[in-house]
Structure formats: structure tokens, C-alpha cells
Amino acid sequence: KAKGSGRNGYALFDTSLRDRVRDRVRLEQALRGALDRGELAVYYQPIVDLESDELDGFEALMRWQSPELGFVSPMDFIPIAEETGLIVEVGAWLLRDAVRELVRWTERRPDGARRLHVSVNVSVRQLRGGALVRTVRDTLAETGLPPEALWLEITESGVMEDVDTALQTLNELRDLGVTLCVDDFGTGYSSLSYLHRLPVGIVKIDRSFVAGVGEDDSTNEPIVRAVLAMTHAMGQRVVAEGVETAVQRDWLRAQDCDLVQGWFYGKPEPPARLEDWLRRDTATAG
Ligand code: C2E
Ligand code: MG
Ligand code: MG
Ligand code: MG
């Protein structure tokens, strides 16, 4: 198969590059139309208040089960959806779906139960043009959800890509009353110089910094402490991502971290499997 140059290194590189291009094209073709074919779904992962140990809300995470390709990770298909612009349509669908789901849950809860939030990831591509602001405004009007119960997560690297556009859109969203979050905090660039300029209420510390906290040789602890001190000084609340152990949870609670999310509490699951969470929370909240 390799062209007769006899240089194996070339042939190998050539093949894997071609494979990657072919994979990418297949993925892109399959992704177009995935929404119409009903292959996309929304899973929800609990976010828990550390002080009360009660459910605070859920993060909505997109899932794609393709008949040809099988389960495709959002780490693989979201970047393609962003590059192709498909994210605008697909993201609007997810936002509506997640808000409607939250309203259904809330309606089923007895009086006096605390309000829950739903947190939706938004990519930088959606911050351009007015579509996102319109979708959010229409969805809130249509469902009657209190705006602060809708959280929108934006990665800091996404914001940094085009600060002026991002700031303008974020300010419009803030004016609608929704809660804005910086996602994967700590993994982007020049975070500190911009954080105070963003109308952000929640900072989500990336799970790479949460790994190992509470253990003897943790080098992440000073970083997490510094992020908590800084964000709390600015009046923001903090979600620690990727909490997998009781040791991490206990350490974070001792540092006055506000909220946690991770496998220790629950993995992302389809709505039908969240009944447990909703019941458990009602029991403790009552
Ligand atoms: P993210 O927003 O930072 O989401 C958190 C990711 O960490 C999720 O991966 C979640 O399943 C995973 N996770 C949660 N707890 C733990 C834990 O304790 N341990 C470990 N190892 N992982 C944990 P997922 O669902 O594969 O999503 C990956 C990324 O894809 C998300 O990162 C987000 O950036 C993107 N994404 C997912 N859904 C959407 C969407 O609807 N729109 C956009 N724009 N991006 C999305
Ligand atoms: Mg997120
Ligand atoms: Mg995150
Ligand atoms: Mg992350």
C-alpha cells in the first residue's frame, strides 16, 4: 500500500493522517442530521451544596449515540459541532430541552422544596450573533423558569478567544437574569486579568486541580485555596468539578468550597434515572 519510497516512516505517517481525515469527515457527515434523527440526548449530573449536603441542581451534558459510529464522546463531537457551526442549532435544542426538563421536575416537587438549577454548556461560537440571547429569552418566557435557575457555563479559553464579543453577549445574558459560570477554570490563559471583568456568579474549578486534594503530597491544594480566596473576595461561588472521593469532599468542605460535582455523588444519567435524586432531595429538604 505504501508508495514505493521504502521509507516506512513516511508511509506510516501518511496512513494515519489519511485515517484521521477520513474519521473526521465521517464524524462530520454523521453529525449533520443526528439531531433530526433523534440520536442526541441530554444526560444530567447532580451538583450538590457542600454546606447543606443537598442537591442544588444538575449540569446538562450532551450525548450522541450514532447507529454507525456507536457512542461518540462530546470531547470528540463538540469541537466538530463548533467548527461547522452545527453547535448553534444543537445547543439551542439542548438548552430548551434542559429547561423544560427542569420545569417538569420542579412541578412534580412538593411545596416548599428548594428550587433547583440546570447548568448548560455554551460554546464561544454561540456567543456570536444574537441567537443565544434570543433562545434564552424565548425559553424563559415560554417556560416561566426563574432566570437565575438557568446557569450557562462558558470556558475561559472560549471567552479569551474573542473578549469583546463575549463580554457584550455575557452582559446581555446577565441582564436577562441568568447565572453565568466560568467552566474549567484554571485551564485557560490570562484568567486573572479578566475574571473580574466578566459578569460571572459561579466559577467551576477544573477537575485537574481537584485531583488529589486532601492527600498527603497534594500540590493542588494551594491552587484551589487561592482560587477560593480570590473568587470569594469577588463575591462569586465555586463549584469543584471531578470530586470522586470522600477525602476530596471533606477537604473542599473544610476550605469553604460552595458546591461539588463528580462521580462521588453521581455520574451523568438520563432523566428517567434521576428520580432517585429528586426523591432523596425532597426527603432532606422537607
Ligand atoms: P465539562 O463541561 O467540564 O463537563 C464535565 C465533564 O467531566 C463531563 O464529561 C463529565 O461527565 C465529566 N465528569 C464529571 N464528574 C467527573 C468525575 O468525577 N471524574 C471524571 N473523570 N470526570 C467527571 P463529558 O460529559 O464527557 O463532557 C465533556 C465536555 O464536553 C464538557 O466538559 C463540555 O466542555 C463539553 N460538552 C458536553 N455537553 C456539551 C453541550 O451541550 N454543549 C457544549 N458546548 N459543550 C458540551
Ligand atoms: Mg461544563
Ligand atoms: Mg467543567
Ligand atoms: Mg471540564
From TrEMBL:
It comes from the Bacteria. Residues 24-282 form the EAL domain. This is Diguanylate cyclase (GGDEF) domain-containing protein. It comes from Mangrovihabitans endophyticus.
